[in-house]
């Protein structure tokens, strides 16, 4: 299991400081054996990528079966 901070958060200038959908897709290609959990979404107010957008964008890449995007407060069993 690989846990990533996602949401595409950014400051007024520069690149995103948390992972975007493109970053997560690249990780999935680099490590095809791992499940990926995208966390930290909506936990900071400058996350520009929503859970729904992330799901939609990754579904076109056919990797959503390997991506877990928990809702706020949701627990995940990682055994």
Report a brief summary of the structure.
The protein is an alpha/beta fold and 79 residues long.
Structure write-up:
Helix content is 24%, strand content 13%. It is an alpha/beta fold. It has one domain (2-68). The protein has a three-stranded parallel beta sheet, with no helix packed on it.
Defining traits:
79 residues; alpha/beta; 2 helices
Q: Could you give the order of strands across the largest sheet?
A: 1-2-3
Mean pLDDT: 88
What gap, in angstroms, lies between the N and C termini?
A: 9 Å
**Computed structural class:** alpha/beta
Q: Beta-strand level of the residues, as a percent range?
A: 5-15%
Helix-strand blueprint:
Layout: E1 2-5, H1 21-30, E2 36-39, H2 51-59, E3 67-68
Parallel strand pairs: 1-2, 2-3
């Amino acid at each position: 299991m690989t846990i990533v901070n996602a949401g595409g958060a950014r400051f007024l200038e520069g690149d995103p400081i948390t992972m975007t959908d493109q970053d997560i897709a690249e990780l999935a290609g680099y490590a095809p054996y791992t499940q990926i959990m995208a966390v930290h979404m909506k936990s900071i107010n400058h996350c520009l990528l929503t859970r729904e957008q992330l799901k939609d964008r990754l579904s076109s890449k056919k990797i959503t079966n390997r991506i877990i995007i928990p809702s706020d407060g949701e627990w995940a069993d990682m055994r």
